[in-house]
Specification:
Order of helices and strands: HEEEHEHHEHEHEHEH
CATH architecture: 3-Layer(aba) Sandwich
Helix content: 25-40%
CATH class: Alpha Beta
Structural class: alpha/beta
Shape: globular
Low-confidence stretches: 1-5, 20-37
Largest sheet: 8 strands, mixed
Number of helices: 8
CATH superfamily: Alpha/Beta hydrolase fold, catalytic domain
Mean pLDDT: 89
Distance between the termini: 26 Å
CATH topology: Rossmann fold
Length: 292
């Protein structure tokens, strides 16, 4: 395991920019079946080039995955696992929630990725708790901050759970939004080895010496009207990645603000176009980093 020192700094500040907390917590379920057993499956149904995934526009419908306890000795940490139909093997994704915790919007997006052909595990960094307002959300972030080794162990356990599945081909990526975007970057630098890091408006790093620890291409989607991170911070991040020799696909979208991609249905007229472009970029990125 690489040293989790950077995660402490990023977690302390990442949540300050997170403003999306409208999703309600969903009740926890039973632990999923063992990897070799069947259990729930999501029909393969990749989006067309002109289509957004239904989860981010509020059209996903009933959840199709299952709850899973992936952290040994901690029954309060319950993730959400979405598995594509078929025998595989499939690439896999570890997705990291915003500052309000593992809510249904994140579970729905996990189903979206399973429909694209990825075994997807939505991690739970808040021990089953979710927030419904900024004060509650910040309290959850601060509680996670007080146990940084636990955060790293949590994500490493989620990664190991995916890699141990017989239907996972071995390549795993990590991605997140806002709080989770900063954590995804931190995990790419300090967590156990994986193959892709996708960041949606998360806390960034502008030190080439630190970013040189990254061993794979980085994807990033950001908003021109955002201040967490600001366009200037994104540009500094991009320059530092170039200086460190890290390939990247970063883009700042005009006329949208923080949180636009995971919550397109909040203003689909303004967010739909940028979100579709970001989605198609993301699909291409995951295909080249996690595909055959």
């Amino acid at each position: 395991m690489r040293r989790p020192l950077l995660l402490l700094t990023l977690l302390a500040t990442a949540a300050l920019a997170c403003g999306q907390s409208s999703d309600e917590a969903a009740p926890g379920g039973q632990a999923s079946a063992a990897p070799e057993q069947m259990g729930p499956r999501v029909p393969l149904d990749p989006t067309m080039e002109s289509e957004l995934p239904p989860g981010i526009i509020g059209q996903r419908g009933e959840l199709q995955g299952a709850s899973v306890q992936y952290l040994a000795g901690d029954p309060s940490t319950v993730g959400y696992l979405a598995v594509p139909e078929g025998e595989g093997p499939f690439p896999a994704l570890l997705i990291i929630h915003e500052w309000n915790g593992l809510v249904d919007r994140v579970r729905q997006v996990a189903d979206d990725f399973a429909a694209e052909g990825y075994v997807t595990l939505a991690a739970d960094l808040f021990s089953g708790q979710t927030g419904s307002n900024p004060e509650e959300n910040m309290a959850l972030v601060q509680a996670a901050q007080s146990d940084m080794p636990g955060v790293v162990a949590n994500l490493n356990a989620a990664l190991a759970h995916l890699k141990a599945r017989p239907d996972v081909m071995g390549r795993v990526g990590a991605m997140g939004w806002c709080f989770g975007g900063g954590i995804a970057l931190s995990f790419g630098l300090d967590g156990d080895d994986h193959d892709a890091t996708a960041i949606f408006y998360g806390r960034l790093v502008d030190d080439p010496a630190v970013l040189a620890r990254m061993d794979h291409e980085v994807y990033g989607t950001f908003a021109r009207l955002d201040q967490g991170p600001s366009p200037a911070q994104v540009e500094a991040f991009e320059a530092a990645l170039r200086s460190a020799g890290i390939e990247n696909d970063l883009h700042i979208y005009d006329a949208v603000d923080h949180g636009f991609w995971l919550h397109v249905d909040g203003d689909q007229a303004a967010r739909g176009g940028p979100a579709l472009d970001a989605w198609n970029r993301l699909k291409a990125y995951l295909d080249r980093t996690l595909g055959d």
